[in-house]
Amino acid sequence: MSSEPNPRGVAPAYDEAEKGTLDKVYPVEKKPLSFPSDEKKDLFPNEKKEVAVFNAPQVKKDPYMAQKGKKKPVSKLILIKLWYNTYRKLFTITFSINMIMFGFAVSGHWPYATKFAGAFAVANFNVSILMRNEIFGRCLYLIVNTLFAKWPPLWWRLGCTSVLQHLGGIHSGCAVSGIIWLTYKVVNTYRNHINENNAILVIGLLTNVAVIVTAVSAFPWVRNTHHNVFERHHRFVGWTALFLTWAFTIMGDIYDTVNRQWIPDGRHLVRQQDFWYVMGMTTWIVLPWICTREVPVDIELPSPKVAIVRFRRGMQQGLLGRISRSAVKEYHAFGIISEGPHAKYHYLICGVQGDFTRSLVNDPPRTLWTRELKFAGVSNTSTLYKRGIRICTGTGIGAALSTCIQSPYWCVYLIWIGSDQEKTFGPTISGLIHRHIGPERLLLWDSKVRGGRPDTMKILKEVYHSWQAEVVFITSNYIGNSEMMQGCKEAGIPCFGTLWDFVSTRTLLWL
């Protein structure tokens, strides 16, 4: 690349050496964006040929084109199974256990829980934050992928993937339970206000309010429709709640309600369980931020709809990265594309959907803030399976491509649905696709050229049985994800899709 400064920060065209890994050059062989007829025939042996009727002209139809018309209603049982997923099951288990204990406490049958309600609160917050800690998550994925790759029964491996993907159920279950325990603690403190110090009463109330605001800002509707509101309140009010929790815990531990005086005894303080729970909370919150760095980036703009952000160093498959223009706010997560841990670069495909991604196109930066330690996504568990299918639409290819590139012996089948793939994503992403994924493992469905969207379930079913796949990973928008998940469930195909934790009006009508 030229060493001359670029005033707009836009990366020049990539030369051949930059497209490869390390110093090795891989020539990009231009291949068609969809199956030639002979390859398609080999992959889909059950495809029916059109037969001319009498002397009518033969009209060649694409057997995999989606048919227009009213769709078959999905059974309520399938919708209930999809709604009551592992996330909600883990939430139910976590919350139910806490509420059983809480019931014994408020009924007077467990005085210990009443006396140490604050410890129960911060213990729940400790586990809740741990479940979202990126380092802890990476360790869990590493352990599972190392111990259970390919050899256990399929139901066990599917269960491992499901639990890892839905750890948020424990996160939210413990968070809600912690708020209930904290409220119980504050109420008991106010009941005993005669013997309590006024400062403790005020700090306790402020802590409770801050924790509730932090939780409400993370409700699915707020998080998905007002991302910046969610991030500002969940992060900054959450940090405020942490400081208040420290104050409430320390003040409560060193104040003697019998003698109504402060006893600042450090040895007594460190013997209290709630002190160490809050210490754990603080550790899990601080650790990921230690890995935050401002790093140089190159941005390729193949089209007005997409920015391809290039970072130095390679990555393993199935990871996601958060990027921001600021050190502490407005972080957005994208799937990472890389040829492997020893590659020179990794890439993020940022589709223009909001102010942040639009700014990457209109005003490309030279540096971005990111966490050097990336967090794992569901694709990271692809090593558990012998064969699988990866299907994605639009910019979802960013979350799927690394798995397909780095797993040549795992029969990944990449199905991508969109229009003008080469023009939209440019030569860099197209080169990665055609260089590493053979036509027998690839279907790029151009909806503009084909004249419409495909019948994804027809393709999925045939490819699933043809490849003898064990699992399907789906990355799509809400509607596409729902339709494919419903179709796979009805067909008995194990599948994992994008997590959309809000329910559409249409789904509610079905229920």
From TrEMBL:
<feature type="transmembrane region" description="Helical">
    <location>
        <begin position="168"/>
        <end position="187"/>
    </location>
</feature>
<dbReference type="InterPro" id="IPR052979">
    <property type="entry name" value="Adenylate-forming_domain"/>
</dbReference>
<protein>
    <recommendedName>
        <fullName>Non-ribosomal peptide synthetase</fullName>
    </recommendedName>
</protein>
<keyword id="KW-0472">Membrane</keyword>
<feature type="transmembrane region" description="Helical">
    <location>
        <begin position="275"/>
        <end position="290"/>
    </location>
</feature>
<keyword id="KW-0812">Transmembrane</keyword>
<feature type="transmembrane region" description="Helical">
    <location>
        <begin position="90"/>
        <end position="110"/>
    </location>
</feature>
<feature type="region of interest" description="Disordered">
    <location>
        <begin position="1"/>
        <end position="25"/>
    </location>
</feature>
<feature type="transmembrane region" description="Helical">
    <location>
        <begin position="199"/>
        <end position="221"/>
    </location>
</feature>
<keyword id="KW-1133">Transmembrane helix</keyword>
<feature type="compositionally biased region" description="Basic and acidic residues">
    <location>
        <begin position="16"/>
        <end position="25"/>
    </location>
</feature>
<feature type="transmembrane region" description="Helical">
    <location>
        <begin position="236"/>
        <end position="255"/>
    </location>
</feature>
